[in-house]
Design a protein that fits this description.
The complex is a heterodimer. In chain A, 32% of the residues lie in helices and 5% in strands. Chain A is elongated and about 160 Å long. The relative contact order of chain A is 0.11. By secondary structure, chain B is mainly alpha-helical. Helices cover 74% and strands 0% of the residues of chain B. In chain B, α1 runs antiparallel to α2, α1 packs across α4 and α7 runs antiparallel to α8. The chains are: A mainly alpha, B mainly alpha. At the A-B interface, α1 and α2 of A face α5, α7 and α12 of B.
Chain lengths: 687, 300
């Protein structure tokens, strides 16, 4: 196709890209010069004469008739007058004007928009999630938000670091001691993890990311229906350089999951195969008898103690059988008074017939100064001091007066005396509610009766001792009679292993259809010796020269309070059978708490009585929600369903084998179930 | 029909290739980007800034020396393809969801308006230029009374009439018709043609007419004028009918000018929406960038 020919002989020169064109275009022939760039008419003359040497020559083009005959005027002006017009804008010029006005209008609207800074919701990218809907002040989250919109542009070059921005989140959302580190873990543990080759495809990449701000995963302003939990999992690949598109093919082995340290030391094999084989065979006892799907919680819930354990274990806890008894709290240990008299030890009155031992509570009840003496006397038989050196006699003397001071202080000051002693041990006074539980309502009358019967001259002797006087031991006298009124305990009836109190004979188990649990006590209440009258009603009682506390029931506040206090300052409790916590928990002569509860895995800040695997789960990168996997009750009661994921290690083993990965990928394959990282893994392993 | 699909393919194929390339590059980079702690929307946002900025400078690109070596049609295809790529990146940037905030609604609406106007303009550029050649072209630049009297074949010249010259041609045709009518009236004293001219033809020649009919390629208006002229012949002698025939030819020339004007208006008129909206879009985008950086403190 041939376009219109252009040329100075064929057509005038059009200038559609200029802003203006001749106003006579629509009427007659437009002038040749056209308007200037500012839209002013230049049509006064038909040409702009050119000077050549001394002469002015006409430059009118041939399309306009060629050079005119008269030629330019002598002063160089065109001699042919042109026609004037009002230039009009070209299409392009009009478009440009419209664009400028559009831009100005936009800027004006923007000014109005930005000037209404009292309502910053104008600028929000979207509604906030329901959890944050109550926040009305933007600066609560946007830390460095400048006060005026004009200053917002500073953010292009001076933005706060992710740490500074995320600290606003932490004002409400506590995330442990290391909220900004990857996985909220201590950096030392992160370093250890980075050096641990987990498996070939889960080794964290060589990343230098030290700070992970909250909003990297938890995006806000994504609408009311947005999920704040950041569960897409794609962020994980920032460090774990590989996207496990196929859990079935590429995921690492499941390792030892879910086998880990447990807070409940329950022997499954013994209970199923030895204690309740008939009930298990008859399906009166199944996995779901003790393990329940917890609604709203990922883990399983353990059935309550009073439902599944109490029938067998209650009597041992509350000491209603004589073999168990109460927990020894305070005692006047038996001393070799004859030797002490011979060696001029000044301890005042002391019961001659006492054979008691120091209770596990005594190191905590006595002032810390006595700890040196207790350590010195450790391993020494206090009833035989004939061959001990003088410093041991002195330690015994100081110990005796420490005990007497304790008794007198408890009588005089009650729980304040205990609080002062615990403050000396712990460095801080126990809270009031804790102190109440530590005292368990120990009556002053009990203490006064104890003092009258054990240490009748205590007030006078204490006064003399505190005055600096040496109070010698009085001559020997007959032992008090009330000690002999109590029935001695036959400690040979049961062994210390609590499990042995359960009969192994099937015939002892009840055939009661309403409860699968059959206890020896229920089947034959008279088969165990009952506690003596002093122990029968629970609470505080004296026996010999020892003050006992008999727990009321499972989770007794007194024992719980003492154990919680002790494990707080001694995290390694339970590692040593001789430590105070074990002694207190067990309570001579039989174990109580630690038969089923393990405190070995206690860590400061933990809840020591949490169910099994809780601590393990909190520190783990793995989470498993049983609820989506739960089957109908009829099927779930079939232990075979549970054993599919938790196979027996062996019929007599205490626990189970790890869950094989094959079990997971039976369902979690492409097109069947989701396989995102956070489906099974927890990010916040550290808190 | 073959030519139609050929034109369509010639327009669509490079668009698909270039826009697909932009999206593929974005996808590959965004995949690695999203594996990190960085927000992939920052990537797509800056991509959009670059692409929209490039598109906004289209007029300048055509004047650049280095790019002016490319044919205008090639530059136009690159512009259209890049525009489609921008639409794809925009969808990625917004996750294909509607905006939530009021300011974002403003920005989103502007982008969509610019994109839609661009799509319409691209459709105009694809189909309307061909229409300009579907009707016989008339060498209007050389129209003169002598030409009309000579009755030469005016279809041999493919001279294109572009927008800026149409008013001049229209005025020239108007003058020719007026001269013809006045000459006939002066020579014969008959007022038949003069009356028809005053009441019917003068408004027709005064400006562009029947735009919608022309866009739908309808000949109805000019046929109606011709039909209205037929009864006049009964009151005219041979010279009068000859003069009426010349006027009818000029009417058809004017009708063709209107046809060209209507299509040129469409080809240029959509830019009156597209370009100002683009200016507004750039301004609001800049504010959006500032807002994003001010309120997403700390995000990379």
């Amino acid at each position: 196709m041939r376009l219109q020919k252009f040329g100075y002989r064929d057509s005038p020169y059009e200038r559609p890209t200029q802003k203006w064109h001749c106003g006579q275009t629509d009427e007659t022939a437009p002038c040749r010069l056209g308007p200037d760039s500012k839209g002013r008419c230049q049509g006064a003359f038909q040409c702009a004469p050119a000077r050549r040497g001394e002469r002015w020559e006409c430059t009118r083009p041939s399309t306009a008739g060629g050079s005119c005959a008269p030629g330019p005027l002598p002063d160089g002006r065109c001699g042919q007058g042109g026609s004037f017009c009002v230039p009009v804008r070209t299409w392009r010029g009009r478009r440009r004007v419209l664009s400028v006005w559009g831009a100005l209008l936009t800027i004006g609207l923007m000014g109005v928009f930005f000037s209404s800074r009292h309502d910053l919701a104008h600028f929000a990218a979207g509604d906030m999630a329901p959890q944050h809907r109550m926040i009305e002040d933007c600066t609560i989250c946007h830390a460095a938000l400048p006060t005026h919109p004009a200053a917002w542009a500073q953010a292009l070059t001076h933005r706060p670091t992710p740490t500074v921005a995320a600290e606003r989140c932490l004002r409400c959302h506590a995330r442990g001691l290391h909220p900004m580190t990857p996985h909220t873990l201590p950096r030392a543990r992160l370093a250890a993890l980075r050096q641990t080759p987990l498996t070939e495809n889960t080794i964290p990449a060589e990343t230098s990311i030290d700070t992970v701000a909250c909003f990297f995963c938890h995006g806000e302003h994504r609408g009311r229906a947005a999920d704040l939990r950041g569960r897409d999992g794609i962020r994980c690949q920032g460090c774990h350089g590989r996207w496990f598109a196929q859990a079935a093919d590429e995921h690492a082995r499941t390792g030892s999951y879910p086998v880990g340290p447990s807070r409940i030391t329950f022997n499954h094999g013994k209970h199923i195969n030895t204690v309740f084989p008939a009930q298990v065979t008859d399906r009166k006892i199944t996995c779901t008898t003790c393990h329940l799907v917890a609604e709203g919680s990922p883990g399983m819930r353990l059935q309550r103690f009073d439902v599944v354990c109490a029938d067998c274990h209650q009597s041992k806890i509350d000491g209603t059988v004589a073999a168990v008894g109460g927990v020894p709290f305070l005692s006047l240990p038996g001393l070799d008074l004859e030797t002490l008299r011979q060696r001029a030890a000044a301890i005042g009155t002391w019961p001659e017939s006492s054979t008691a031992r120091l209770t596990p509570f005594m190191p905590w009840l006595l002032l810390p100064e006595a700890a040196v003496d207790l350590a010195h006397l450790d391993g020494i038989v206090l009833r035989d001091l004939t061959k001990v050196p003088p410093e041991t006699i002195a330690a015994v003397e100081r110990l005796a007066w420490a005990i007497k001071n304790l008794v007198q202080d408890l009588i005089d000051s009650g729980d304040a005396a205990l609080a002062a002693r615990l403050q000396a041990h712990l460095g801080h006074a126990p809270e009031r509610n804790v102190l109440v539980r530590l005292m368990a309502g120990l009556p002053r009358d009990v203490l006064m009766a104890l003092q009258r019967e054990w240490l009748a001259a205590l007030p006078e002797e204490i006064t003399r001792f505190r005055a600096g006087e040496r109070v010698v031991i009085p001559p020997a006298s007959p032992p008090p009679r009330q000690e002999e009124t109590l029935v001695p305990v036959d400690r040979t009836v049961l062994s210390k292993d609590d499990d042995e109190i359960l009969p192994e004979e099937d015939g002892l188990l009840s055939e009661d259809e309403t409860s699968p649990w059959t206890t020896r006590a229920a089947a034959n209440p008279g088969s165990l010796p009952a506690a003596d009258p002093g122990e029968r009603y629970g609470g505080w009682y004296r026996k010999g020269f020892t003050l006992y506390y008999r727990p009321m029931a499972h989770a007794d506040p007194f024992l719980r309070a003492w154990l919680e206090m002790i494990v707080t300052v001694a995290p390694a409790i339970g590692n040593d059978d001789n430590d105070d916590g074990n002694d207190i928990a067990s309570g001579d002569p039989g174990k109580r708490c630690l038969t089923c509860h393990s405190l070995q895995t206690f860590r400061q800040g933990d809840e020591p009585w949490a169910p099994a695997f809780r601590r393990h789960r909190e520190e783990s990168f793995i989470t498993f929600d049983h609820a989506p996997h739960s089957l109908p009750p009829a099927l779930l009661s079939d232990e075979g369903r549970c054993l599919a994921c938790h196979p027996w290690r062996s019929p007599t083993a205490t626990a189970f084998r790890p869950t094989p990965r094959q079990v997971c990928i039976t369902c979690h394959v492409e097109g069947n179930a989701t396989q995102g990282c956070t489906l099974c893994h927890r990010y916040h392993a550290g808190g | 029909m073959t030519m139609f699909f050929g034109r369509l393919a010639a327009q669509v194929f490079p668009t698909v290739v270039l826009a697909g390339g932009i999206l593929a590059a974005n996808h590959l980079y965004a995949a690695s980007f999203s594996f990190s702690f960085r927000d992939v929307r920052f990537l797509s946002g800056w991509e959009l800034v670059g692409i929209v900025g490039w598109l906004a400078l289209f007029g300048m690109q055509r004047r650049l020396v280095t790019l002016s070596t490319l044919k205008a049609s090639v530059q136009q295809r690159v512009h259209i393809a890049t525009g489609w790529g921008a639409v794809g990146v925009f969808v990625l940037h917004t996750d294909g969801r509607l905006p939530q905030g009021r300011f974002d609604w403003w920005l989103w609406s502007l982008f969509v308006a610019v994109a839609v106007s661009g799509v319409i303009g691209a459709a105009f550029y694809t189909f309307l230029p061909a229409r300009l050649h579907e009707r016989p072209h008339i060498r209007l630049w050389q129209i003169s009374r002598a030409d009309i009297e000579a009755g030469g074949d005016r279809r041999r010249n493919n001279e294109m009439i572009f927008m800026e010259r149409i008013p001049f041609f229209r005025a020239k045709l108007g003058r020719l018709v007026e001269q013809e009518v006045m000459a006939f009236t002066r020579d014969t004293g008959s007022m038949v043609i003069l009356d028809f001219y005053v009441h019917r033809l003068a408004p027709f020649f005064r400006g562009p007419r029947h735009m919608l009919f022309h866009l739908f390629q309808s000949h109805h208006p000019v046929h109606r004028i011709s039909l209205e002229m037929r009864p006049l012949e009964r009151y005219l002698d041979e010279a009068g009918r000859e003069s009426l025939g010349k006027i009818e030819k000029l009417i058809r020339f004017k009708d063709h000018l209107d046809y060209l004007h209507a299509h040129h208006m469409m080809l240029k008129g959509w830019l009156f929406i597209h370009v100002p909206l683009t200016a507004a879009l750039l301004i609001v985008s800049a504010a959006h960038g500032i807002l994003v950086h001010a309120f997403t403190a700390g995000s990379p």
